[in-house]
Amino acid sequence: MAEPSSRTRFGWRFWLLLAATLAGVAITSSLGRWQLSRGAEKEALQAAITARQQQPALDGATLARPLTPTQKDTLLHRTITLRGEWLADRTVFLDNRPMQGQAGFFVVTPLRLAGSDTVLLVQRGWAPRHQRQRESLPPVDTPAGPVQVNGRIAEHPSRVYQLGTDSAGPIRQNLDLEAFRAETGLPLASVMVLQTGPPSDGLRRDWPEAASGVDKHYGYAFQWFGLCTLIGLLFLWFQVVRPFYRSRRLA
Question: How far apart are CA 116 and CA 34, in angstroms?
């Protein structure tokens, strides 16, 4: 007796599910490989960040001149020692910036660099917000006269969601560099410095370490490859293994 052809053994539903399975496996495996490549890129970025942080500290003269976008990128995360004077009356309190689960402010004060007209925004630390009086400013000490500030070069604080435009008062949701430069008339540098060190001036500095987010990409890759494997196993079980044993029992 002749063996039944594949056309008789498997109906159109089988071939449709096979095509869908192959498409699903191809898409999920491709997404998994893409996440692995992104993870490798982020690992290289993390290595570059670590290498920059281990280089000798820069001084304020590095930021007292105009910087190109490429120069800015190469300076990010470098440690730096600044000397200058605080412009206390221009201090800004960025609201809705929690630290360790507590509501509070990022305190940003302009620093006029010694021997230069350049002014640098310094994210000096974090201060808690009054639980009831939201417009109350936390007690922050801003020393007068020459000061020395240790920190690392950083991007400007990430933006948080806000309704409408920011006021010009000390408490704000976000701080736009160009808008603040126009508002104050200060010759602001194009980067800012994140002050590091132990708590002082009524401010905490428990900043998270600069990270590239590589673990996130590897986690996503694991999920995509897991879904790819699950799609293949489900097809094999429901369309091949289970029908095979069912036909054996009926024979």
Answer: 47
Distance CA 227, CA 235 (A): 12
Residue ranges with strand state E in 103-238 = 104-113, 119-128, 146-154, 171-172, 188-195
Helix (H/G/I), strand (E/B), else coil: 246: helix
Partners of 111 in beta bridges? 86, 120
Residues in CB range of 5: below 8 A, 6 or more apart: none
CA-only gyration radius of the chain, Å: 29
pTM recorded for the entire structure: 0.73
CA distances (Å), 57 to each of 101, 190, 225, in order?
Answer: 32, 19, 43
pLDDT digits (tens, 9 = 90+) for 38-89: 988 888 888 888 888 888 999 888 888 888 888 888 898 899 999 999 999 9
Among residues 93, 94, 107, 87, the alpha carbon closest in space to that of 188 is found at 87
The tens digit of pLDDT for each residue in 163-189 reads 656 667 899 989 888 889 999 999 999
Q: CA torsion angle for 150, 152, 154, 160 (degrees, to 10)?
A: -60
79-86 and 104-113: which strand pairing?
Answer: antiparallel
What's the CA gap between 125 and 107, in Å, rounded? 6
Q: What DSSP letter does each residue of 58-104 carry, written as one string?
A: EEGGGGSS---HHHHHHHTT-EEEEEEEE-GGG-EEE-S--BTTB-E
